[in-house]
Amino acid sequence: MQDIIRSTKELNHEFAVQLCLAAINHANTFPANIAVVVLTPAGIELSAVRMNQAPLHAVNIARKKAYTAASFHVPSQSWQDKLKHKPDTMSALLREDNFTYLGGGIPVVIENEIVAAIGVSGATEAQDIECAEMAITTLLNSLFLSK
C-alpha cells in the first residue's frame, strides 16, 4: 500500500503567518507596501496579508506568484529566462489563471521537500524577491536556532 500513497509535508499556519510578517517587516525597511500570500504545495492558501497602502491588485498577484512557485517547484522569476525565446509557450502560460513569470514567488524548502510557497507583490520586482527570500531565511533561522 505504501507504494501507491504518498505522504506530503506542509508548513503549518503559524509559520505561514510568521512568513508573512517577516516579509512585511523587511518591506518596512525600504519602505514599501506589499501583500504576501503563503500556499501549501498543493496551492491551498495558508495565510495572506495586505499592508494598508499596498496596491489592491497586490494580493492576487502575490497569490499567482506563490501558485507558480508551488506548481513548478521553482521561483516564479525563473520563467523569464525559460520563456525568453518561446513566445508561444509564454503566451499559453500567461492565459492560465494562476501563472505569472514576475519575480516574488519562491518555494519554501525544508529538509529537501517543498512545504509551502510564498508570493510577495507591491514593491519593485527586486524588492518583492528580497522580501520573500528574507522571510524564508528568517523562518529557517528560527527553526534551526530553536533546535
Topology of this protein?
Layout: H1 13-27, E1 35-39, E2 45-50, H2 58-72, H3 78-82, H4 87-94, E3 105-110, E4 113-121, H5 125-145
InterPro entries: GlcG_carb_metab_protein, PduO/GlcC-like, PduO/GlcC-like_sf
Pfam families: HbpS-like (PF03928)
Structure notes:
The structure is a single chain. With 147 residues, the protein is an alpha+beta fold. The chain has one domain: Beta-Lactamase. Helix content is 44%, strand content 18%. It contains five helices and four strands. The chain has helices at residues 13-27, 58-72, 78-82, 87-94, 125-145; strands at 35-39, 45-50, 105-110, 113-121. A four-stranded antiparallel β-sheet has the order 2-1-4-3. Helix 1 crosses helix 5 (125-145). The longest helix is centred in the last third of the chain and has 21 residues, at 125-145. The protein is globular, with a radius of gyration of 15 Å. InterPro entries: GlcG_carb_metab_protein, PduO/GlcC-like, PduO/GlcC-like_sf.
Keywords:
147 residues; alpha+beta; Beta-Lactamase; 4-stranded antiparallel sheet; 5 helices; 4 strands; PduO/GlcC-like_sf
Q: TL;DR of this structure?
A:
The chain has five helices and four strands; from the N terminus they run αββαααββα. By secondary structure, it is of the alpha+beta class. The chain has one domain: 2-Layer Sandwich (Beta-Lactamase), CATH 3.30.450.150.
